[in-house]
Design goal:
InterPro entries: AAA+_ATPase, GTPase/Isobutyryl-CoA_mutase, GTPase_ArgK, P-loop_NTPase. One of its GO terms (molecular function) is GTP binding. Belongs to the SIMIBI class G3E GTPase family. ArgK/MeaB subfamily. It comes from Candidatus Marsarchaeota G1 archaeon OSP_B. This protein is an alpha/beta fold and about 290 residues long. The protein is built from 11 helices and 7 strands. The protein folds into 2 domains: about 50 residues; about 240 residues, P-loop containing nucleotide triphosphate hydrolases (Rossmann fold). Helix 8 links the parallel strand 5 and strand 6. It is globular.
């Protein structure tokens, strides 16, 4: 292992004491520099594989993912779980930085020392997680977070890519989004473990719920895990307890069936592919 810089050594000492400022600084430096990230992850070693439930939450803009996640975080905290949230926002064309639209949300949850929230841009990637976001998942696991929630926006390829790095995939939709259901029925990849019909107090929710449940039952009939379909109202936390139970049941299923290890291995293989691709692109840019 390469000799660690004084800064990294100091940060790691603070990191071991669960210093959240050191955590934030380490994630920032890892995002900025692939070399720093490599040295860091090497130093953390097996700690990056600590037990944690990594949950991906995705869906179209406007379906209420952020509000739902807020309520979910509070429920996990009531159970004594330490939580990390990674929010994937569209990158600025000019700066590459993430656009943080909801500062009140960040401030409200981050006052709890057991909740850590970080926003990442997509780094120009189509749908998937940037290297910085992938590294952040490992760093949060090493830090000892019990639950890590990865929030993304989009449909199709986005969900496929994110599903490779999480244990449980939650797909959120809402009444009136017929395009979402058509996409699922027309060949939507079978990656959803839990489907949520949020804003179910809106008109047409019963019909949307019946359609979604029917689609899931047909598409996932052969799977050992039968995806749950849950109605929620994020603003009032209605249905969030049921969602929490579904998430816990799915994680227990992954552990008891041995699928947890299979999913982590698939994520590792995908990441190796991404690292090779990124290094090749870097080398090509040097000569073009």
């Amino acid at each position: 292992m390469e000799e660690l810089s004084d800064e990294l050594s100091t940060l790691l000492e603070r990191f071991k004491t669960r210093d959240t400022r050191a955590l934030a600084r380490i994630i920032t430096l890892a995002e900025r520099s692939a070399d720093f990230s490599e040295r860091l992850l090497d130093a953390l070693g097996e700690q990056t594989h600590r037990r944690a439930h990594v949950i991906g939450v995705t869906g179209a803009p406007g379906v209420g993912k952020s509000t739902l996640i807020d309520k979910l975080v509070l429920k996990f905290r009531e159970k004594g779980k330490s939580v990390g949230v990674i929010a994937i926002d569209p990158s600025s064309v000019f700066s590459g930085g993430a656009v943080l639209g909801d500062r009140s949300r960040m401030n409200r949850l981050s006052v709890d020392p057991q909740v850590f929230i970080r926003s990442f841009g997509t780094a120009g990637e189509l749908g998937g997680l940037s290297r910085g976001a992938r590294d952040a998942i490992k760093i949060l696991r090493a830090f000892g977070k019990d639950v890590i929630i990865v929030e993304t926006t989009g449909t199709g390829q986005n969900e496929v890519d994110v599903a490779l790095y999480v244990h449980t995939s939650v797909v959120v939709t809402m009444p009136g989004l017929g395009d979402d259901l058509q996409l699922m029925e027309a060949g939507f990849p079978e990656i959803g473990d839990v489907f949520v019909l949020n804003k179910s107090d809106l008109a047409g929710s019963d019909a949307s719920y019946a359609e979604l449940k029917n689609m899931v039952q047909l598409r996932y009939a052969e799977r050992a895990w039968k995806p749950r379909v849950i109605k929620t109202v994020g603003v009032s936390a209605q249905g969030v307890d049921e969602l929490l139970r579904a998430l816990e049941e799915h994680y227990d299923h992954l552990v008891s069936s041995g699928e947890l290890a299979l999913r982590e291995n698939a994520g590792f293989r995908k990441e190796v592919e991404e690292i090779i691709k990124e290094r090749l692109e870097h080398e090509l840019k040097r000569y073009l």
